[in-house]
Amino acid sequence: MIDLLERWVPTQAEFDAFTEVSGDDNAIHVDPDFCATTAFGRTVSHGMLIYSNLWGMLKRYDPKIAQGSQSMMFPNPAFAGAALSLRIVEERARYLQMRVTREADGAECLIGEAEIAC
């Protein structure tokens, strides 16, 4: 049974580095001046950066684990400097439930499931 929990405080430097490797240079991730004019008021993490941190947590737990499929939603933004709780729980064989929540208010930033390949 897998039950993992980690804390992560994303940084603007991580957003910028992920922009470089992903090519996703949307201003909402990298331009604090632009973001100040939006409803968010500050830069927002790439969804796949959040997922990458979850997957990294899982790979540290079991380096041989492989993903078969995934599904996820990003109902609320994750901000630079705002602490997140990352959690992975195996609720049934080969299926992992994933949740990322903002510590400040409990808002879910990622809700998902991954199937582990055999």
List the helices and strands and how they pair.
Elements: E1 3-8, H1 12-22, H2 27-30, H3 32-35, H4 47-61, E2 67-73, E3 84-92, E4 95-102, E5 108-116
Antiparallel strand pairs: 1-3, 2-5, 3-4, 4-5
Describe this structure in words.
- It is a single chain.
- This protein is an alpha+beta fold.
- The protein has a domain at 3-10 and 46-116: Hotdog Thioesterase (Thiol Ester Dehydrase, Chain A).
- It is built from 4 helices and 5 strands; from the N terminus they run βααααββββ.
- The longest helix has 15 residues, at 47-61.
- The model has no long low-confidence stretch (mean pLDDT 95).
Tell me which CATH architecture of the domain at 3-10 and 46-116 applies here.
Roll
Mean pLDDT reading: 95
In percent terms, what proportion of residues is strand?
Answer: 25-35%
Give the termini separation: 15 Å
Question: Which series of helices and strands comes N to C?
Answer: EHHHHEEEE
Residues in helix, %: 25-40%
- CATH first level of the domain at 3-10 and 46-116: Alpha Beta
Mind describing the biggest β-sheet? Answer: 5 strands, antiparallel
Extract low-pLDDT stretches.
Answer: none
Query: Would you identify the CATH H-level superfamily of the domain at 3-10 and 46-116?
Result: Hotdog Thioesterase
Number of strands: 5
Q: What fold name goes in the CATH topology slot of the domain at 3-10 and 46-116?
A: Thiol Ester Dehydrase, Chain A
The number of helical runs is: 4
Large-scale geometry:
elongated
